[in-house]
Amino acid sequence: MIFRFCVLLMVWLSLNAHAASQPNVVVFLADDSGWGDLSINGNTNLQTPNIDSLAKEGASFDRFFVCALCAPTRAEFLSGRYHSRGGVLGVSTGQERLNTDEKTVADSFLAAGYSTGAFGKWHNGSQWPYHPNARGFQEYVGYTSGHWGEYFDPPLEHNGKMFRAKGFIVDVLVGKAVEFIETNREKPFFCYIPLTTPHSPFSVPDEHWNKFKDSPVTMRGADGEAEDINVTRTVLAMMDNIDMNVGRVLRKLEELKLSENTIVVYFSDNGPNSVRWNGSMKGKKGVTDEGGVRSVLFCRWPGKIKPGTTVTPIAGAIDLLPTITALAGVKSVSTKPLDGWDFSTLLSGGEWKRGPRELMNYNGGRLSVRSQTHRLDASGGLFDMIADPNQTKDIASEQPEVAAKLAAAGTKWHQEVFGRPYAMAPAAAGKGKGKAKGKGGANFADDRPYPVGYAEFPVTMLPARDGVPHGDIKRSSGAPNCSYFVNWKTKEDFMTWDVDVHTAGEYEVSIDYVCPGPDAGSLIELSFGDAKTTGKVTPGWYPRLLDDQDRASRKGESYMRDFHRLSLGTIHLRAGRGLLTLRALEIAGQSVAEVRRVTLVLKTK
Fold first, then answer.
1. Number of domains in the chain
2. What is the mean pLDDT of residues 317-343?
3. Residue 61: pLDDT above 70?
């Protein structure tokens, strides 16, 4: 008995010693925050002491590059590979999905015995197996879309089930992350916090807005006439809120005595989403110039990373997976060659032995190439980023060898990734300023259907952004991510979702809708091949638009309502690909309904 007890004690001590030796990891990812949105980078319009502390107490990457838009950066962080390799070619209508054969950083930590959780904006696919719960995250709270129209008391998802939260969205999500940290404090955890701000809509709580609503904006964007001061003030308030919430997490780690054994990372997903101060760099969100793709990257690990460390070699989002896994001593389970480099040796004070490199910034068919000293822009202009960090003078004709070298690197990369040529056309090769001639991967048709019906995740949500309107139906906003279907008035109008049913069986069907009371009663039908189910749009449900939450005008999100759920009974779906179609058989009033999503729940096989 004593021997058995001793053996069990040794096993327990071994396991706990192993757990203690594995550092926790917390990763913050801001949404649409520029390099210049922090006081540590010289912005005197605000103070961000908690975020700044990560750089002061750890390492700051001097030139760190992400993508021009949200979903691509998230894919590169998750996979350690350029986003285009993983199927992420856009930000909506299915193009934001990270291919399911890509392994993620969370997969690696989960395989190493970590508890894993993500709390915030996902933006790399909604349905299983694109869903975060299928990509290595045991716990997920947030929204899988790229935009969200409700920042106060928002509807959010928890592991496939919707709920309506109370409070401001960032406060709620960080609160859930703090709960996850508390729950898993006795074992190693990987906690990913992809924040949803300062992405529009420009909404923020009073306690932060009141600090900036009347304050002078003394540091302005380079294109001052295009700057909306009210937007800038709101962004400053949103950054103030982010900083407060970063502080909440840091204090919780300190309270639980976990700070010394926790790696904390902070970065953003693209350049600023408005004209505002950004160190006079050229470009903002959506473009591949320096200002559109440069982000901060701070990494703190007390006792392991020397305070005030500056990493000078250029780095990018693709480098995070190999670097973080190496720091934590976790084996990457990636099955494909990584594009990213491991910077852990440099962070730990070791000697940097890697040679020069080029980083690719690609968006919408336009490719820019960055070396340690130069940037070849998407039009073939060459800029000396040491002497001219704001890209004011094209020197391609003065340094044709450099321009040609970067153009060749870009062309080779594009051929490798897309299987087609791309002419960078540096100015030195022709007359005047060069112009990119390759079509690249812009506007690729995404032929991947939306998967439905996995036993391990029986709930499949099909939002309007993933559907296609027909007839006179249209989206409530030009930006599909935060939209719903409107203008459904005739029997010729219908909406479809291209789906691939994985498991044949009975499915419960519901739609989230609104409908004015006088129009209630239309008979609608959901069909898939020969299978059909019908129901009446009732009761009438048309609450007011939530249009009083913003501090500045919206930039692409629809104003939302509180949508009602209507059951359409059950439908038997065969396995295979086809169009799921929602149409009206009888129309009771002037319109049928506005539709936010269809939800299918697998009941039997």
1. 3
2. 97
3. yes
